[in-house]
Write a structure and sequence with these properties.
Elements (H helix, E strand, L loop, with lengths): L1 E4 L8 H6 L9 H9 L9 H9 L3 E8 L2 E8 L18 H12 L5 H7 L4
Antiparallel strand pairs: 1-3, 2-3
């Protein structure tokens, strides 16, 4: 999920900005200009179209209106965790690292708070 503060104008959605030639509304031009000059963004007014094009083939997405704005929800297909066992020698790991390594190898979807609890760091 990717939250965004602010909301869309009444009766508009991200799809309108993707499918139609609609200008975006620059709410804070000072921040926008600063991000552009720092090269944190390439150009403005193309975010939804760029995101849609990048996701088209591999990621389904939707958006939800929430209390303080909207958020994008991304659904990835066939995501698998790849645990590489040849990165470093098992014998070089500490006791806690070995315990974590074994648990992740058994279940790549193990949550970090579960791992912390297992080694007594919660």
């Amino acid at each position: 999920m990717s939250p965004n503060h602010g909301s869309f104008p009444f009766n508009l959605s991200p799809h309108d900005y993707i499918e139609k030639e609609m200008p975006s509304m620059k709410v804070n031009t000072l921040i926008l200009d600063t991000l552009f000059r720092c090269k944190d963004i390439e150009k403005s007014e193309t975010g939804f179209k760029s995101m849609s094009e990048l996701c088209k083939e591999i990621v389904r997405w939707t958006y939800e209106n929430v209390a303080y704005g909207f958020c994008f929800v991304f659904y990835r297909n066939n995501v698998q965790a790849n645990v590489h066992t040849d990165v470093l020698a098992y014998d070089d790991l500490t006791k806690d690292e070995k315990t974590i390594f074994i648990k992740i190898k058994e279940n790549p979807k193990t949550l970090k708070n579960e791992l912390a609890s297992i080694i007594g760091k919660s």
